[in-house]
Design brief:
Length: 403
């Protein structure tokens, strides 16, 4: 009989998941606001800045492939500990670089840890919170969103008061804090938590069968399309919202603030979507209003961008709720932590590999045509693929049944 206290003994693991999630985007949004300042100091131009902008999706794609074998060999807990150690080392090293190459190498080190964390957090939720997937997914995705927002708001003031090196290196602190719960788990806490959880009937033991191949599953491709198209649209907006708004006549400071609006509105969907998806008869019902928000948001950005810029960017931020949906479906469409890890790795490899093209294609279309109509047409095509991926992923089936 299940215990009436299914959370007993797992709160520290929950803290470890939330702290690790907070660190999954800090390397990106702590550098972006300072690119002009850092570029002037290290003497690099727009080409190097563009390469730095592509590193996150590239690293996330590479470590989507590399992380599942690492997790299989080390275990999920040691892998997330390694991920946070790499993130901490890379973040600290960025404060001491003396050239563009050093900045890229240290950023790549931090992003490697964050890419590993992308893959292992969903199966850790599956392992320790099999009975509360929706609630815990909401906690960790919201924490990730907060970790995306906070550096964007803090980076410039901190750089102005203490220098850009301190501003970049300061984000080693939350990465180090994220190490502590997992160090405790590996010191014996894991066995105690696992024993209690199995006794309560909430921790699955099964693993994938020998010879299982995720890439053969239609579900895996649909999930990769959902995550990949969502990430492509999101990173295109991260890159080009400020330029879009300055083209519309806003001052640079106001244009930059619209990126903050875009990011902040995603908090609402990060909180709500995982819980709703875990209870919905069909998660695709959650996607339909998001598709409508995309349509209204992009129409407004094309027809009246300077009239209500916060409204349009806010609607597009809410439409990005397909990202927390994709992460939540990793656990809703698998039975075991092993299946969750395999699906997560495949989705991040394929999805972020495709997402690399988003900022580049949007920028090229804007430069060639001199406007934003063709970029929006491209993004609309991507959203159509996203809709197919969401529909196919919402069908009631699980990855393990593909083998």
């Amino acid at each position: 009989m299940a215990s009436p206290h299914p959370w007993r003994g797992r709160l520290l693991v929950l803290a470890g998941i939330a702290l690790a999630a907070f660190n999954l985007r800090t390397a990106i949004t702590s550098l972006t606001p300072l690119l002009e300042t850092v570029g002037a100091s290290l003497a690099f131009g727009s080409t190097a800045a563009g390469v730095l902008g592509m590193l996150p999706t590239l690293a996330f794609a590479v470590f989507g492939v590399a992380t599942p074998p690492i997790a299989h060999r080390l275990g999920l807990e040691r892998t997330v500990l390694l991920a946070m150690a790499l993130a901490a080392a890379g973040m600290l090293a960025r404060g001491f670089v003396d050239g563009t190459g050093g900045l890229m190498a240290s950023s790549l080190l931090a992003l490697a840890g964050m890419g590993m964390g992308n893959v292992v957090l969903p199966p850790l939720v599956k392992r320790y919170f099999f009975d509360r997937v929706g609630v815990v997914s909401s906690v960790y995705i919201t924490s990730m969103q907060l970790g995306t927002m906070a550096p964007a708001f803090v980076a410039v003031p901190l750089a102005m008061s203490m220098g850009w090196r301190v501003s970049l290196a300061a984000w080693v602190v939350p990465a180090v804090l994220a190490l502590l719960p997992w160090a405790w788990v590996l010191q014996g806490g894991r066995r105690r938590i696992a024993a209690a959880s199995v006794a309560e009937g909430v921790l699955p033991r099964a693993t994938l069968p020998p010879g299982a191949h995720v890439w053969r599953s239609p579900l895996a491709w649909a999930m990769a399309a959902l995550l990949g198209m969502t990430s492509l649209v999101t990173y295109a907006m991260f890159t080009w919202i400020p330029r879009w708004m300055t083209d519309a006549g806003l001052e640079p400071a106001a244009a930059g603030a619209m990126l903050g609006v875009y990011t902040a509105t995603g908090l609402a969907t990060s909180l709500a979507v995982p819980v709703l998806a875990s209870r919905a008869r069909s998660p695709f019902l959650l996607v339909l209003p998001m598709l409508a928000l995309y349509a209204v948001g992009y129409a407004g950005m094309l027809l009246a961008p300077a009239s209500w810029p916060a409204l349009w960017t806010g609607l597009l931020g809410l439409a990005g709720g397909t990202f927390p949906l994709a992460l939540t479906l990793i656990n809703l469409r698998t039975r075991t932590p092993a299946g969750s890890a395999a699906l997560s790795g495949f989705m991040h490899w394929v999805g972020y590999g495709v997402a690399c093209a988003g900022p580049l294609v949007v920028g090229q279309l804007r430069d060639v045509t001199g406007g934003w109509h063709w970029p929006v047409a491209f993004l609309a095509l991507c959203i159509a693929v996203l809709a197919w991926g969401a529909w196919a992923s919402s069908r009631p089936r699980v990855l393990e049944d593909s083998w």
